[in-house]
């Protein structure tokens, strides 16, 4: 397994924000987004045996694992997820939707599409997270919201680890006008925790 890092922290985004979580960050991504705030997945990884990954996960008391990247669905993670679940872990995955079948057995899926012209509206996910900034097309956001029943989180686009106040204000105003959306604030950045 190509793993960029395994670390223990709080989930900072979406429905599970504030929960203690063990993060497993997989290497590589099928996209190269200019606003990506996590460069490690493109620059570093360790080849790890599955047993080594489980050993590191077991060092922490939480039973909540977040699989992230990069783009974790570059790998077929179903066997890995099943083994985590067999050991009592609740498994959440964040994906850009590259290959949802590779995470079909996850307990929770956050879909964060980057190309809004090609959104998968099937039911493979539990929540959608959209990265927005002050010039985001509000009509497109509203169009997306009309096609979904699942929760939609809007997350202000950051500048690496810096919160961009204008983008936060844009999200606040958007949600006040359209309560269909929920704010995701990246608590880990606000609290300056890893």
UniProtKB/TrEMBL annotation:
Gene Ontology annotations of biological process type: tRNA queuosine(34) biosynthetic process
- Known cofactor(s): S-adenosyl-L-methionine; Mg(2+); [4Fe-4S] cluster
Where is [4Fe-4S] cluster annotated to bind? 29, 33, 36
Q: Which residues bind S-adenosyl-L-methionine?
A: 35-37, 70, 112-114
Has keyword Iron-sulfur? yes
**Keywords recorded for this protein, A-Z:** 4Fe-4S, Iron, Iron-sulfur, Lyase, Magnesium, Metal-binding, Queuosine biosynthesis, S-adenosyl-L-methionine
- Asked if the Swiss-Prot or TrEMBL record annotates the protein with the keyword S-adenosyl-L-methionine, the reply is yes
Span of domain Radical SAM core:
16-194
Q: Which domain of life is it from?
A: Bacteria
User: What family does the Swiss-Prot or TrEMBL record give for this protein?
Assistant: Belongs to the radical SAM superfamily. 7-carboxy-7-deazaguanine synthase family.
Name it: 7-carboxy-7-deazaguanine synthase
Organism, by scientific name, is SAR324 cluster bacterium
Q: Which gene encodes it?
A: queE
């Amino acid at each position: 397994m190509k793993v960029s890092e395994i670390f223990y922290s709080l989930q900072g985004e979406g429905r599970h924000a504030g929960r203690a979580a063990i993060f497993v960050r997989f290497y590589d991504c099928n996209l190269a987004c200019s606003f990506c705030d996590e460069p490690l997945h493109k620059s570093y990884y360790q080849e790890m045996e599955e047993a080594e990954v489980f050993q590191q996960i077991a060092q922490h008391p939480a039973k909540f694992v977040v699989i992230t990247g990069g783009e974790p669905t570059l790998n077929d993670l179903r066997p890995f997820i099943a083994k985590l679940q067999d050991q009592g872990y609740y498994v959440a995955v964040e994906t850009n939707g590259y290959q949802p079948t590779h995470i079909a057995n996850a307990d929770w899926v956050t879909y964060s599409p980057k190309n809004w012209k090609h959104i998968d509206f099937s039911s493979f996910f539990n929540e959608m997270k959209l990265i927005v900034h002050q010039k985001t097309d509000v009509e497109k956001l509203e169009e997306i919201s009309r096609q979904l029943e699942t929760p939609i989180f809007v997350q202000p686009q950051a500048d690496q680890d810096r919160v961009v106040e204008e983008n936060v204000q844009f999200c606040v105003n958007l949600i006040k006008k359209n309560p269909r959306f929920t704010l995701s604030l990246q608590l880990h950045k606000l609290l300056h925790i890893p």
